[in-house]
Amino acid sequence: MRCSKQAAAVIGLVFAFVLAVDAQRGPGASIWFEGARLIVGDGSAPIENSAFLVEGDAFTWVGRQGQRQPPPGAVRVDLSGKTVMPSLIDGHNHIGLVNEKDGSNSKANYRRANLVDQLERYAYYGVSAALSMGLEADPDLAYQLRDEVIPNAARFLTVGKGIAATSIGGPTGEPRLGIPYGARTEKQGRDRVKELHANGVRFIKIWVDDRNGDVPKLQPNVYRAIIAEAHANKMEVLAHLSRTSALADAKDLLRAGVDGFVHLVRDRDVDEEYLAAVKAHPRVWSGPNMPAVPTRDSIAALAETLPANQIEGMRKQLAAQEAKGNPPNELFELHCRNLRKIHAAGMVIAMGTDGTGDGFGSHEQIEAYTRCGMTPMQAIVAATGTNAKVLHLDRLGTIATGKEASFNVLDANPLETITNSRRISRVYLRGQEVDRQALKTRFITSNN
Ligand SMILES: [Zn+2]
Q1: What distance in angstroms lies between residue 46's CA and the mean position of ligand 1's atoms?
Q2: Which contiguous run of DSSP H or E holds residue 381?
Q3: Mean pLDDT of the chain
Q4: If you measure from the C-alpha of residue 135 to the centroid of ligand 1, how many angstroms do you get, rounded to a whole number?
Q5: pLDDT on residue 14
Q6: Both 67 and 187 in a single domain?
Q7: From the CA of 224, how far away is ligand 1's center (Å)?
Q8: Distance from Cα 56 to the centre of ligand 1, integer Å
Q9: Domain of residue 361, CATH code
Q10: What is the DSSP letter of 200?
Q11: CB 403 within 8 A of CB 395
Q12: How many domains, the chain?
């Protein structure tokens, strides 16, 4: 579309005025958003032609257009044709170890600048909070970041160091990098929990996994002591499950009183005994952690923020799959079958990416859920309202009066096609619009 010089000048003036108004509004200013389809995040029907008011960092009114007028002096934002959903919450990841710019993976990368860079990547893709699950190479830095609010960045949550049978890493490439606390005895397990409690940690992460015989496995008497100590301190225990013995371990962890799983059973199909145990423990939740399969669409989204050589690698991987005629991914199919079964059994489905720092994995997870039979609405609720509930993030997860104003404005409706969650027009965190353009420019230029 062409426009005359005069029209361009007028548009320029209006734009300058909007910027000026925007610059003037302080923390107490109000913004009135109207016209969007609004997905609340609790599974209720979307509100068509919504209106909502944001004051400071919170939603102070949520309803329909015409139900009330904006307060005098409020900045008005027209969102006609857009869809608004709560920001995503990633309940399981390992931020800080990978450097997204060069692809390296090491303890040495776990520095403030790298962590903040990754929290900004999460913000870019509409994620407001990310729970780092136990590979805290520098716990003091982790606790410090946890207690900060950084503009244009997701909130950093942490379980501190997770607990395995031993902190000693296995063979080269062992994914825990030798970071966890080791607990070979019940006393060691209890002591680790006490130390984490003293640091304000709410969740204990345990790895029940011998990495195919490469490292010792956390023993049942030790994880029972950990769970008992955690519960005595009003903490909860979240378990990693192995690729080789998950079903048997998960059954015993349920008997032992575990609070959540950050993987699906992924060594074999779940059986009736497991489903009965799931039903008998209705408060225990699962963050399925589906194996991510790169698609054209996800590669295109990641190309906005990752270096060209990494994108090239993903394209080659995808091309190789296509050249083979896209054979079924057995591991993915197993996850799908088990997700369907536990979902049908009524298990609470949450969401975690097990991702590193690119910030995009939440979109891939919810897409995977829908490929395994969940509706887009169910997938969105898992990553928003349910995640907030199971992680006790009382101000996040839904769009309602009093909640934190962290939300995504989308160009298309994700209830029709879940990949529309990626068609992000704007991201707001804590009442402030994230400057995605500035972030993107920095991600891309610093890649060179
Ligand atoms: Zn993990």
Answers
A1: 33
A2: helix 376-381
A3: 92
A4: 8
A5: 44
A6: no
A7: 21
A8: 34
A9: 3.20.20.140
A10: T
A11: yes
A12: 2
Expressed in angstroms and rounded, the spacing between residue 364 Cα and the centre of ligand 1 is: 16
User: Are both 74 and 123 inside the same structural domain?
Assistant: no
End residue of a domain, out of 365, 390, 415: 390
Structural domain containing residue 154:
88-390
Considering the domain architecture, whether residues 280 and 360 belong to the same structural domain is answered as: yes
What is the spatial distance between Cα 223 and Cα 164, in angstroms, rounded to a whole number? Answer: 9
Q: Per the domain annotation, does 114 fall within a domain?
A: yes
First to last CA, the chain: 33
pLDDT in tens, 377-415: 999 999 999 999 999 999 999 999 999 999 999 999 999
> Tokens 């003091």 — which residue?
140
In whole angstroms, give the CA distance from residue 371 to residue 419. Answer: 11
Q: 378 and 269, same structural domain? A: yes
**What is the distance in A from the centroid of ligand 1 to the CA of 7?**
54
Predicted confidence band of residue 103 (pLDDT cuts 50, 70, 90): confident
Q: Which of 261, 82, 94, 286 is nearest to 179 (CA)?
A: 94
Q: What is the per-residue pLDDT across 312-351, written as a single tens digit (0 to 9) for each?
A: 999 999 999 999 998 889 999 999 999 999 999 999 999 9
Cβ(189)–Cβ(163) under 8 Å? yes
406 contacts: CB under 8 Å, gap ≥ 6:
86, 87, 128, 396, 428, 429, 430
> Residue 46 gets which letter from DSSP?
P
Q: Helix, strand, coil: what percent of the chain each, to 5?
A: 40, 20, 45
What is the DSSP code (8-state) at residue 82? -
How far apart are the CA of 93 and the centre of ligand 1, in A? 6
- As separate numbers, helices (DSSP H) first and strands (DSSP E) second, the chain gives 14, 19
| Total residue length of the chain | 448
Sheet holding 127-132, edge to edge: 88-93, 127-132, 155-158
Dist. CA 81 → ligand 1 center (Å): 38
Determine the distance separating the centroid of ligand 1 and the alpha carbon of 195, expressed in angstroms: 21
Query: What's the pTM value of the predicted model, to 2 decimals?
Result: 0.92
CA of 92 to the centre of ligand 1 (A): 6
For 226, residues 6+ apart whose C-beta sits below 8 A from its C-beta are 163, 183, 189, 190, 192, 193, 204, 206, 237
Strand order in the sheet with 37-38: 37-38, 83-86, 407-410, 424-429, 432-433
Check whether residue 152 and residue 50 sit in a common domain: no
Dist. CA 90 → ligand 1 center (Å):
12
d(CA 159, CA 274): 27
Q: What is the pLDDT of residue 24?
A: 42
Distance 397 CA to ligand 1 centre (A): 22
